[in-house]
Amino acid sequence: AKVLAESSDGIVIGSSIVEMIADGSRTKEFDRIGNYLREIKTAIL
Q: If you write DSSP's letter for every residue of 1-45 in order, what string do you get?
């Protein structure tokens, strides 16, 4: 993930976050979004 992060853009990640926010607003599962972002941060740092 770290190697790919150096050469890719954030469109895919951004799109998935927007989708998760839309889904989360219906289901009230916002913790899932935070967990996803923490996993991405860990993978690319």
A: -HHHHHH--SHHHHHHHHHHHHHHHHH--THHHHHHHHHHHHHH-
